[in-house]
């Protein structure tokens, strides 16, 4: 086909479950993008915390090209060298003893939940099946994960949701004490709620969950799909807190833009997923595994991880300066390069109104609900791009204020 696609083609040919911006990026390098018209953008969105090393980072491009000439896909009737190397690397860098590879964060969370129930069933019996999660959490779009997630809007209209799921209040340990009992098989939590508004967990809350799980012989699952692989300034956020889960899920930054997910667990728990209990056609794909291994090895270095924390401070300084001038934010929060700016009372529900203005000014950002402007840029975004992107964001916010 020689015809150049346009934004109207989305409306004509695509299922309308998304509402993308008008611009269509066609090329990226580092933290900058160019659209069909040649207009340049600075990327503070990072593919929603996916593009951990920006666009077309040479380390990832080289890994992909090298593997592309060797082997793409086998299925899990066979294993392959990149998958084995990736699994070993994740085990050696974390608490885990075993790894399950898949293609997305939703798949990783689905596997984690199935593993938890299967482990409880095999070790305690059918009664131990309840899962505790938290309001405003987000764990994926499969029917199981969207039901465990604490945002009913994502499961409404699809019929009866799976049973045995209860929700507590994030950062409220007392609410969990009222829910967890001998029938609970797992507690699932994000160390920092992403879609729920960029809310970091309090250290005492996560430690309390660990203690409650130990008391009731339940498994603690950390959903680190958005916080993992350097996003918080550590390889995984659990390392920042010093609280170790039984199961951890990873995706997004893990592949640096290539679809890949992983579930990590211990020798105590892993045997519950025996042969035939679960699977993924593309899980452990040689291409994805090669790229993910390159991403992990490049990110899990003092230079990159220290740089994430330094860049966090720069983002915060710029956002605070914008707020002193325009008064649009109530609070700026987050960890590492997952940052949220909650809108002030005068601008409630208007975070999304910033995005098209920002696009016009040449900067891409995100929201986390109606009241939080979210940024999840490349972990190695140059300081000059931060400064220029913030200047463009300030112009967008000035336009929002002027139109108020």
- Shape verdict: globular
Strand neighbour order, sheet with most strands: 4-12-11-10-7-5-6
Low-confidence stretches: none
Number of helices: 13
Number of strands: 17
What does the model show?
Helix content is 38%, strand content 18%. The chain is built from 13 helices and 17 strands. The longest helix has 25 residues, at 302-326. The termini are far apart. A hairpin with a 4-residue loop joins strand 2 (32-35) and strand 3 (40-43). Helix 3 (58-68) runs antiparallel to helix 10. It has a seven-stranded mixed sheet, with helices on both faces. It has a four-stranded mixed sheet with strand order 1-2-3-15. The protein has 404 residues and is an alpha/beta fold. It folds into two domains: 7-56 and 302-402, Aspartate Aminotransferase, domain 1, CATH 3.90.1150.10; 71-299, 3-Layer(aba) Sandwich (Aspartate Aminotransferase, domain 2). The protein is globular and about 60 Å long.
């Amino acid at each position: 086909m020689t015809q150049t696609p346009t934004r109207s083609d989305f409306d004509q040919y695509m299922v309308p479950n998304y509402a993308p911006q008008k611009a269509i990026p066609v090329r990226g390098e580092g933290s900058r993008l160019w659209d069909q018209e040649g207009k340049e953008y600075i990327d503070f969105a990072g593919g929603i915390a996916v593009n951990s090393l920006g666009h077309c980072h040479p380390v990832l491009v080289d890994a992909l090209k090298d593997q592309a000439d060797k082997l793409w896909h086998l299925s899990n009737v066979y294993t392959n060298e990149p998958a084995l190397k990736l699994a070993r690397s994740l085990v050696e860098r974390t608490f885990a003893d075993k790894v399950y590879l898949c293609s997305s964060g939703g798949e990783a969370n689905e596997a984690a939940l199935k593993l938890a129930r299967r482990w409880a069933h095999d070790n305690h019996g059918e009664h131990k099946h309840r899962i505790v999660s938290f309001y405003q959490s987000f764990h994926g779009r499969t029917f199981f994960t969207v039901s465990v997630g604490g945002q009913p809007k994502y499961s409404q209209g699809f019929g009866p949701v799976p049973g045995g799921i209860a929700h507590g209040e994030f950062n409220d340990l007392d609410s969990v004490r009222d829910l967890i009992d001998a029938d609970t098989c797992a507690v699932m939590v994000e160390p920092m709620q992403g879609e729920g508004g960029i809310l970091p967990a309090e250290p005492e809350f996560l430690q309390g969950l660990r203690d409650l799980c130990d008391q009731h012989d339940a498994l603690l699952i950390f959903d680190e799909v958005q916080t993992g692989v350097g996003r918080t300034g550590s390889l995984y956020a659990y390392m920042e807190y010093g609280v170790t889960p039984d199961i951890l899920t990873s995706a997004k930054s893990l592949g640096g833009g290539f679809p890949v997910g992983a579930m990590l667990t211990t020798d105590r728990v892993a045997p519950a997923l025996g042969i035939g209990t679960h699977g993924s056609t593309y899980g452990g794909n040689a291409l994805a595994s090669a790229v993910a291994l390159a991403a992990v090895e490049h990110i899990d270095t003092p230079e990159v991880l220290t740089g994430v924390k330094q860049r966090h401070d720069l983002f915060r300084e710029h956002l605070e300066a914008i707020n002193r001038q325009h008064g649009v934010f109530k609070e700026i929060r987050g960890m590492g390069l997952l940052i949220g700016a909650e809108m002030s009372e005068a601008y409630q529900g208007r975070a999304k109104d910033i995005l098209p203005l920002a696009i016009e000014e040449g900067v891409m950002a995100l929201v986390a609900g109606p009241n939080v402007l979210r940024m999840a840029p490349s972990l190695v975004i140059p300081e000059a791009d931060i400064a220029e992107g913030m200047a463009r964001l300030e112009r967008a916010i000035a336009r929002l204020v002027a139109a108020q």
